[in-house]
Amino acid sequence: MSTPPSPPFALVLPSRPVYAAPTALSETQYAFTFPQSPPFSHIVAFLLPGTILPADTLAGVYIQFPSSAPAFKFLGALGNDKQSVIFRVGVGEANAQPDAGGVDQDEMTDIDAPAASGLAAPTGEVIVGVSIEPAASIQTQLANLKSARSASSTALIPAKAQQPTALTTKLLAQRIIENAFNFLASFSGSTTGPGGEEMVPLRSFKAWWEKFERRVEMDPGFLEKQDDA
């Protein structure tokens, strides 16, 4: 009498024993069933030692929460070159959607934290299915998952606040000169030089510069305001 083959996959959930005895639905499909409580946020799936998947295949990992039955959600995949993966799936039913980084999580943050006090413990059973499929089919699902993750990340980025347009060097210089001219013009006619031309005392220019410096300190962007002289 032949001995049935050992299951090729196992799961680990924080603070729970290893799940290493899935139900074999077929030669290529396996199902792990476990209580949803206590809540969990991560699942580790891995190939058991000695397991080698057939050539050109990958093992797709799917999850079904009680609230989403009978639908399964694709999480990611295992392969001969990637024999373990950490999936972040949220805590309990309320977060049945995989996290934005739901595939290949490299960090497990606060995975043993207890459920928030005052919240009812989730009920029902979770099913994690592992299916050995053609690599091309799994890679298509991985690409779709990556696209959805990118779209979700983009949607969460707030629109940048409109920034004032930086002044060109020429325009900035023109405004500084205009500011100086308007100030110094008030001194015109007080002093005349040879030929009767108007002259502005050097101390007046110094007074403008000191005033200009104070204004820049108080309002660095005043020159960028179109209605400021």
Q: Beta-strand level of the residues, as a percent range?
A: 15-25%
The main pleated sheet reads as: 5 strands, antiparallel
Extended strand count: 10
Radius of gyration: 35 Å
Shape from CA axes?
rod-shaped
Give the SSE string: EEEEEEEEHHEEH
Strand order of the largest sheet: 2-3-8-5-6
Number of helices: 3
What integer is the average pLDDT?
75
pLDDT < 50 runs, ≥5 residues: 92-119
Please give the structural blueprint.
Layout: E1 9-12, E2 23-24, E3 29-35, E4 42-47, E5 57-64, E6 73-78, E7 84-88, E8 125-134, H1 135-155, H2 169-184, E9 191-192, E10 198-199, H3 202-218
Antiparallel strand pairs: 1-4, 2-3, 3-8, 4-7, 5-6, 5-8, 9-10
Helix pairs in contact: 2-3
Please give a structural write-up.
With 229 residues, this protein is α+β, with helices and mostly antiparallel strands. 24% of the residues lie in helices and 23% in strands. It has 3 helices and 10 strands. It has helices spanning 135-155, 169-184, 202-218; strands at residues 9-12, 23-24, 29-35, 42-47, 57-64, 73-78, 84-88, 125-134, 191-192, 198-199. Strands 2-3-8-5-6 form a 5-stranded antiparallel β-sheet, with helices on one face. It has a 3-stranded antiparallel β-sheet with strand order 1-4-7, with no helix packed on it. The longest helix is centred in the middle third of the chain and has 21 residues, at 135-155.
